[in-house]
């Protein structure tokens, strides 16, 4: 199974990046499944139903999110009717939407996607480790499903590292989102799980984590919200990981970072030459 996982999509520039590259990547890499984190797609704050439908039409199978999921109020009703849009599973019981989905591929194989949010320097949600354990207690990788992918939306590298090792050998892939900066630790853990601490963003890197530089710098220097943060809108870099799984056990055979376009150094993925 071939999977593409894309980092946080930030604003119009990020959405344009998805539109430009996802159909080509889906074809060139013969992808079975594509997912992205969409919580910053709507002008940097949240996501709306129109953007969700655009992503699905482009070939995205599931959209994950994080702490900005509720910024666009119309998403509250939409998420209750659209199972392919996830919010973190460790929100309190009764919160609209779900944090897990089981999807069936065209060939009948099933993949479980789990969205979790960290607690260090984040909203005080339920314990993410217990939440993951609960979701996986009746699901065995390679037996009940062909693949399990976890988006851990968290601030600190330590919490993300801990989650990766906690799930090593029990899920196919664990990756972090939220910081918008891609880490250089893409690897296969000792138990066979593919891992990267943070995917980075699909957005304009001539910015402060996707936002206009001047307004962001002003906030740091003056300590007052003198300007509303707005997304930078120059050419985006698509930041993602590509993973090829072992069809017998659901663990990773190959995992590769992908960076295309914009300011970051391109990975030069050979299928795109």
Structure characterization notes:
By secondary structure, the chain is an alpha/beta fold. It has a single domain, classed as Purple Acid Phosphatase, chain A, domain 2, CATH 3.60.21. It has helices at residues 11-28, 49-57, 75-81, 128-136, 157-167, 213-222; strands at 2-6, 8-9, 33-37, 62-64, 100-104, 110-117, 147-153, 173-177, 187-188, 194-196, 201-202, 238-245, 252-260. The chain has a 6-stranded mixed beta sheet, covered by helices on one side. Strand 3 (33-37), helix 2 (49-57) and strand 4 (62-64) form a beta-alpha-beta unit. The longest helix has 18 residues, at 11-28. The protein is globular, with a radius of gyration of 17 Å. The mean pLDDT is 95.
Low-confidence stretches: none
Element order: H for helix, E for strand = EEHEHEHEEHEHEEEEHEE
Instruction: Tell me the overall shape.
Output: globular
Q: Major sheet: order of its strands?
A: 5-6-7-8-10-9
Major sheet summary line: 6 strands, mixed
Return the structural class.
alpha/beta
CATH H level: which superfamily? Metallo-dependent phosphatases
> Cα-atom Rg, whole angstroms?
17 Å
- The CATH first-level class comes to Alpha Beta
**Which bin fits the share of residues in helices?**
10-25%
Tell me what portion of residues adopts beta-strand conformation.
15-25%
- Cα separation of the termini: 22 Å
Total DSSP helices: 6
Number of strands: 13
**CATH architecture heading:** 4-Layer Sandwich
Quick check: average pLDDT? 95
């Amino acid at each position: 199974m071939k999977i593409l996982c894309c980092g946080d999509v930030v604003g119009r520039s990020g959405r344009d990046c998805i539109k430009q590259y996802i159909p080509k990547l889906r074809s060139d890499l013969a992808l079975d499944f594509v997912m992205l984190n969409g919580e910053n797609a709507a002008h940097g704050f949240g996501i709306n139903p129109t953007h969700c439908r655009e992503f699905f039409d482009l070939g995205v199978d599931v959209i994950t999110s994080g702490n900005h999921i509720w910024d666009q109020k119309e998403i509250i009703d939409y998420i209750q009717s659209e199972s392919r849009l996830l919010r973190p599973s460790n929100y309190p019981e009764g919160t609209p939407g779900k944090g897990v989905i089981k999807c069936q591929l065209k060939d009948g194989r099933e993949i479980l996607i789990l969205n979790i949010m960290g607690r260090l320097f984040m909203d005080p949600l339920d314990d993410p480790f217990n939440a993951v354990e609960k979701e996986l207690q009746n699901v065995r990788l390679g037996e009940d499903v062909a693949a399990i992918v976890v988006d851990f939306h968290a601030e600190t590298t330590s919490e993300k590292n801990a989650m990766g090792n906690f799930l090593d050998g029990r899920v196919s892939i664990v990756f972090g989102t939220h910081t918008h900066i891609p880490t250089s630790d893409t690897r296969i853990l000792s138990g066979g799980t593919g891992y990267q601490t943070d995917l980075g963003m699909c957005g304009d890197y001539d910015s402060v984590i996707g936002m206009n530089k001047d307004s962001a710098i002003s906030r740091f220097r003056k300590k007052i919200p003198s300007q509303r943060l707005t997304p930078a809108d120059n050419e985006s870099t698509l930041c993602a990981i590509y993973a090829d799984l072992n069809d017998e056990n659901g663990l990773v055979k190959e995992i590769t970072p992908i960076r295309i376009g914009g300011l970051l150094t391109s990975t030069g993925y050979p299928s795109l030459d």
